[in-house]
Amino acid sequence: MADELTVTRNDEAGRCEIHVGDELGGFMEFRPASGDRTELPHTEVDPAFKGRGLGSALASEALSDLARRGDTIIPSCPFVAHYLSEHDVPGLSVDQPEQGDADAAGGGDRS
To answer: For the whole prediction, is pTM greater than 0.90?
Structure first.
């Protein structure tokens, strides 16, 4: 089915990816931060898939995966921060970024 959505973790690239069929539809970057924390600096969805809910599907699956792994996240990506303000992710530990950290991350999501 061409419209099947799958979310996979790509440790080598440092991101979680969402595919629509065989096409990469978007990704959420992650990187190690101090201690046992993981920073989420950027989320991007291909404009060809805009309006199909890929960003939310990606965030839901990626954040649930991080919660299962016991990671504490720093949501410096504005899209992830907004998603978390509207959705509960059971078991997810969140450290809010310092204002300077969020600015340094370059902001920006394109979802």
So the answer is: no
